Amino acid sequence: MKALVYERPGHRVWRDVTQPGLLEPTDAIVRVDAVTICGTDLHILKGDVPTVESGRILGHEAVGTVAEVGAGVGLVAPGQRVLVSCISACGRCRYCRSASYGQCIGGGGWILGHRVDGTQAEYVRVPFADHSLHPLPDGVSDEAAVLLADILPTSYEVGVRNGGVQPGDTVVVVGAGPIGLAAILAARLYSPSHIVAVDLAQPRLDAATRFGADLVASPQQGVVGLVRELTGGLGADVAIEAVGVPETFELCTTLVRAGGHVANVGVHGKPATLHLEDLWIRNVTVTTGLVDTYSTPTLLRMLAAGRLDVSAFVTHRFTLDQMPEAYDVFADPQNSGALKVVLTRQ
User: Fold this and answer.
1) CB 197 within 8 A of CB 205
2) How far apart are CA 84 and CA 132, in angstroms?
3) Rounded to an integer, what distance in angstroms lies between the CA atom of residue 213 and that of residue 204?
4) N- or C-end of the chain: fewer Cβ atoms within 10 A?
5) Nearest-angstrom CA–CA distance, 67 and 248
6) Helices 223-230/246-255 angle, 10° precision
């Protein structure tokens, strides 16, 4: 089969690899029908995730058809359409028993495309299939469902839920890439009074407006003053960091009000300064997190019921064998205008 293989920082190749087989009774083999590329994949290619070894098949988001299951799998069967979650869960460890699946210490967590071969391939082995695959409701398309493998639950759980967004809040989302746009969409579920999107690129600010941001600004346009004016001088109730660079994290700590919340979602490859000389007296809460995907069943129900519209995320479509071109487009959003790319089986 073909797969997208990470060789070393800056180098990836779409090439022939051995098709996966069952290794454990709890495994399933899934034929990949739709897959997407994540910003985390780009971080891996930059060398920001040194735990990814040379030769690893990348990818942790997919929709597919179950091809084979191990003897210990009871909740999914060959022929079923399933969502492959970005998080694998053993279902038995202390963290899994409290729905903190991203912290699984029983062999799961974020392992696909990280510690085991991932989804950017024609077939993928999914460990702990009963806890890591979600049967898809009838009427939910592959293209819509694949967006719930990572970006929607990540933004909802790590950004909106961890940030404690409440009705009437002023929410600032710093970074209007796919994760930031998903945070805007998820924040709207809680009826904030204002959502402000911050980004350097005008096309992404335009996208933020389409996704429901009330105001948009670049960091150079006096965004701190804008937020203070909007909130009577206080600052944002919740600032969501959705980029993963020191400057955006530090901007969030400047934008948030005393007693407010900074929810970091971005993947950081470099240290960021925590200005405790300013924050120690301001009762600011800072949270970090890896998505647990406990919300995936809820989001799937909302999608099936027509209460969650994700159609605007996908800007480019490819077939699986166009994986190198899809990476080039996704990695250059300033010129391509890409938000999410989806690749499907021919």
Assistant:
1) yes
2) 7
3) 11
4) C
5) 43
6) 30
b/e map 248-268, b = 16+ CB within 10 Å: bbebbbbbbbeebbbbbbbbb
Q: Other CB atoms closer than 10 Å to residue 221's CB: what's the count?
A: 11
| Rounded average pLDDT per 10-residue block, the chain, 346 residues | 97 98 98 96 92 97 98 98 98 97 98 98 98 95 97 98 98 96 97 97 94 94 94 98 96 98 93 94 97 97 95 96 97 92 94
- Tokens describing residue 208: 């933020």
Sign of CA dihedral 99, 103, 108, 110: positive
Integer CA distances (angstroms), 110 to 55, 86, 292, in order: 17, 6, 9
What the block records as the tokens of 47 is 């060398």
Checking DSSP bridges between strand 62-69 and strand 2-8, what pairing results, if any? unpaired
Token match 């963290």: residue?
Answer: 95
